[in-house]
Design brief:
The chain is of the alpha/beta class. It has one domain (4-26, 56-108, 135-338): Ribokinase (UDP-N-acetylmuramoyl-L-alanine:D-glutamate ligase, 3-Layer(aba) Sandwich). It is built from 10 helices and 14 strands. It has helices at 4-12, 58-67, 82-93, 143-151, 167-179, 205-212, 220-234, 275-288, 293-307, 318-327, and strands at 17-22, 24-37, 44-57, 71-79, 101-104, 111-118, 125-132, 154-159, 184-188, 200-201, 238-242, 248-252, 257-261, 334-338. Helix 8 packs antiparallel against helix 9 (293-307). The chain starts with a helix and ends with a strand.
């Protein structure tokens, strides 16, 4: 495979500016050491060691855009609390613009605490996750945000169900961005159908199956029929369907074919946490750098493959993508199914 066009696109990531709107939370990773089995119940008693903190959900998308070489502009609402300050300061330390991060006294910052445990000098395994959740006030759509969208090359909506971008605001933003010729990439955990007229949506198989009301088919015509149905239900232009160990599928509205891309790397991931954020970041950067849908999907497949080989939420680096395409070995194979 001639990888020169991919390497040129990866180099152009540094020129791309992306607005990232949506739910930003605090990811906490608590590392503990297993001491003994409790007498009260068949559970481990663990001694706390330390915690790591990172911006999560849409915040992880922001970090991935940044680490891949792009310039992200996060737009979100945080609680006026310690967790919110940790997220905000994390962005500031990385020289990420925070002008569109607002604080609210009416809600607390959502937090996901992952507890990892292991023996002395042993790798720590993810044992439990505790979520601290509430609904957030929606971002406002005024002249400043309109100016930002016009200045950027594209827009990512990251919706994890915390209401930071309401249906009304989300659709107004999508319509405005598309009217200005900006591609809109939507990743929504529960509400893909409410964000109408997006350029791209990035559901996984479970999310897509919930929308169409049936299990996603393995391949060929049954899958093509479902992709056409999904495009209609979500009123979008293109679908990037992520399929775990089966890779990804790209389908464009009106086509009588789809293109599938295999996986990159090991088919037994270390940790899938945040991999979807890496995928949509790489896809948006690639498309805004001039690659077509299928080529953008190839880079995002590589990004996802790199992400799942690391523990916790991981920010894929530009040099990691460049190395993968410079080497050229193990790149995913592509196959097109066409309904004759």
């Amino acid at each position: 495979m001639d990888t020169s066009k991919f390497l040129k696109a990866i180099d152009r990531f540094k020129e791309i500016k992306l607005t990232v709107i949506g739910d930003i939370v605090l990811d906490e990773f608590q590392y503990t050491e297993i001491m003994r089995i409790s007498r009260e119940a068949p559970v481990f008693i663990c001694s706390y060691l330390y915690s790591d903190y990172y911006p999560g959900c849409g915040g992880n998308t922001v970090l991935n855009v940044k680490s891949m070489g792009g310039t992200p502009y996060p737009v979100s609402v945080l609680g006026k609390d310690e967790a919110g300050n940790v997220v905000f300061n994390s962005f500031r330390k990385l020289n990420i613009n925070t002008d569109f991060i607002k604080f609210s006294k009416k809600a607390r910052t959502n937090k996901k605490t992952r507890i990892l445990a292991g023996g002395i000098h042993r790798a720590k395994q993810h044992m439990l996750r505790v979520d601290f959740e509430n609904k957030m006030p929606s971002v406002s759509f005024g002249s400043k945000l309109k100016n930002l969208i016009e200045e950027c090359d594209g827009l990512i909506i990251s919706d994890y169900g915390y209401n930071t971008i309401s249906t009304k605001t989300g659709n107004a933003i999508i319509n405005f961005a598309k009217a200005k010729g900006k591609p809109v990439f939507v990743d929504s955990r529960y509400n893909l159908k409410r964000f109408r007229n997006a350029t791209f949506i990035t559901p996984n198989e479970e999310e897509a199956g919930e929308i169409i009301g049936e299990k996603i088919a393995e391949k060929e015509k049954p899958l093509l029929v479902q992709l056409k149905k999904l495009v209609q239900l979500c009123s979008c232009d293109c679908i990037l369907l992520t399929r775990g160990s089966k890779g990804m599928v790209v389908y464009i509205r009106g086509n009588n074919f789809y293109t599938s891309t295999g996986i990159y790397g090991n088919d037994e991931p270390v940790d899938v946490s945040g991999a979807g954020d890496s995928v949509i970041s790489a896809f948006a950067l690639s498309f805004c750098s001039g690659l077509n849908h299928e080529d953008s999907a190839l880079i995002s497949t590589v990004a996802g493959g790199i992400s799942v080989m690391h523990k916790g939420t991981y920010s894929v680096k530009n040099e990691e993508l460049r190395k993968a395409f410079e080497n050229g070995k193990g790149l995913p194979e592509r196959e097109t199914f066409r309904d004759s």
